[in-house]
Amino acid sequence: MKELTCKLLVIGAGPGGYVSAIRAGQLGIDTVIVEAAKPGGTCLTIGCIPSKALIHAADEYARVLEMAAGRSPLGITLAEPRFDLARAVAWKDGIVGRLTGGVAGLLTKAGVKTVQGWARFRDGKTVEVETEIGPQVIRAESIVIATGSVPQPLSILPLGGPVISSTEALALQEVPKRLVVVGGGYIGLELGTAFAKLGSAVTVVEAQDRVLPLYDAELTAPVAKHLRALGVTLLTGAKAKGLTEGGLEVEVGGESRRLAADRILVTVGRRPNTAGWGLEQIDLVMAGPYIRVDERCRTSMRGIYAIGDVTGEPMLAHRAMAQGEMVAELLAGHKRAWDKVAIPAVCFTDPEVVSVGMAPAEAKQQGETVVGLFPFRANGRAMTLQRDDGFVRVVARADNHVILGIQAVGAGVAELSVAFSLALEMGARLEDVAGTIHAHPTQSEGFLEAALKALGHALHI
Ligand code: FAD
Ligand code: NAD
Q1: Confidence tier at 292 by pLDDT (50, 70, 90)
Q2: N- or C-end of the chain: fewer Cβ atoms within 10 A?
Q3: Is 18 part of a structural domain of the chain?
Q4: Mean pLDDT of the 51-61 span
Q5: pLDDT given at position 71
Q6: Does residue 112 share a domain with residue 38?
Q7: Does residue 440 have an active-site annotation?
Q8: Contact criterion met (CB below 8 Å) for 192 and 265
Q9: Minimal-distance CA residue to ligand 1 atom 41
Q10: Ligand 1: which residues within 6 Å by Cβ?
Q11: Nearest bound ligand to CA 43?
């Protein structure tokens, strides 16, 4: 059996693992990364990027459909637009190929050795990898576990046949006529919106009393309104009971209903990938289903770190990347610890939702606050983009005006997330935002105006 020794072994080349390996390589650490599938992990191959590609295709199609229907106030007309999902999926696969190839190239450039195969712990310093050319043993001084997450299954709706997860939804060759989405969270609403725009009759079955329950009701109301305008049926407080002939049986308000469906997309969360790689050999302390880590991503075993989705919420690519970079720098002897003020959350629905830091209700529990909300209907740029729904909202301490949280809902507001994160990370006060010139005409002026509103002197409302 072949043996390899290295200073650092990273298991899993998703955003957490590949960033950790690249940074370690840059810092001169002798690094090996093991990946069973493709470099880039869930995010690049079956998650963030493919879903955003599909969402973009759906947005483009919805736009031309509106023009073809003679509804465009811009004076543009078109005849008979068609959509070919197989072609759009091939285009998406091309983007995935470019990105996964790019990550492989970056790893090589940083001097990282990549081993393709499934890794399994033998003990705290040794891993065995099943590769195409036989087993490979790797001994390492330090190991980073970055094995990510997998879709949470529903026992009453096992995957197969019409029941699919996001992975299959992103590879469909035809738009389903009737799509039932079980779980109205991130994935269910991002993909549900895209398929509704592509022509599916979409029904969302959500257990809680509103969709996107992770965010506050004020923030998500414009999303629910737009979904209804797209013809999506939102069944909240609803429970999936099981498959029936040609569809799904659900319970809503104590009554049983049958939903006809060609595909049933199950998106009820993701669970950490802790099975099949020998966790039992190293017996780490867990935090519920996740691997417990401290503020340096150290596990309960010396020399073993864990990052990304396998360590818990929020399961977001940018959190995994930041943890990966930190661990590499710690291993190079840098003084680092997890000291982030906030992790931005963006939901790519239509309109998009951004939340950084605390929502008003949460902030209020810490003391007296001021809140400023500026609606996009008073923003010139939003009007010229034909999308003036949504708002920017800022919450700050009442005494010293230090900003505690910033949220927005609106078309394209994902790109505002960086301004919000920077303000929180820099410890900005309302006056700092109010004193910064925001380019005109941009949607970002909504941020300036929300801060002014909280100070009591908004200019454009
Ligand atoms: P992963 O990306 O899951 O990577 C883990 C890798 O480890 C995988 O490639 C796997 O093959 C490999 N692996 C596991 N075990 C082994 C083993 N024993 N041996 C070898 N290899 C192994 N997040 C965002 O921030 N923004 C978004 O817009 C977004 N959209 C999403 C859309 C969808 C449809 C989905 C499913 C997820 C989305 N996410 C998004 C979440 C994001 O994909 C994850 O948070 C992110 O990928 C986590 O990174 P990770 O490195 O922890 O793990
Ligand atoms: P989620 O946690 O966002 O949403 C799951 C939803 O399913 C919740 O609203 C929950 O109330 C509902 N639910 C749970 N059990 C149910 C049941 N039996 N019947 C009906 N509804 C039920 O999970 P997800 O959409 O699967 O996404 C998984 C994770 O992937 C997210 O939490 C997020 O971390 C990540 N993600 C992020 C993005 C992004 O950043 N834009 C996009 C997609 C996914």
Answers
A1: very high
A2: N
A3: yes
A4: 98
A5: 87
A6: yes
A7: yes
A8: yes
A9: 316
A10: 11-17, 34-37, 41-43, 47-48, 51, 118-119, 146-149, 166, 187, 273, 277, 308-309, 315-318, 320, 348
A11: 1
Same domain, 24 and 143: yes
Tell me the ligand closest to 92's alpha carbon.
1
Burial class (CB in 10 A: 0-12, 13-18, 19+), 162: middle
Residue with tokens 């599938």: 37
Task: Extract the tokens encoding 432.
Answer: 């700092």
Q: What is the mean pLDDT of residues 18-47?
A: 98
Instruction: Answer yes or no: do 8 and 97 share one domain.
Output: yes
Query: Which CATH number do you get for residue 194?
Result: 3.50.50.60
- Residue 450 maps to a domain: yes
Domain-located, residue 21: yes
Q: pLDDT tens-digit profile of 192-201?
A: 999 999 999 9
The pTM score is 0.97
Residue range(s) defining the domain that contains residue 242: 163-268
d(CA 259, CA 325): 46
25-34: per-residue pLDDT in tens? Answer: 999 999 999 9
In angstroms, rounded to a whole number, what is the distance separating the alpha carbons of residues 125 and 110? Answer: 23
* Dihedral, 410, 416, 422, 427 alpha carbons, nearest 10: -30
Instruction: Place 164 in a pLDDT band, splitting at 50, 70 and 90.
Output: very high
Q: Does residue 56 form part of some domain?
A: no
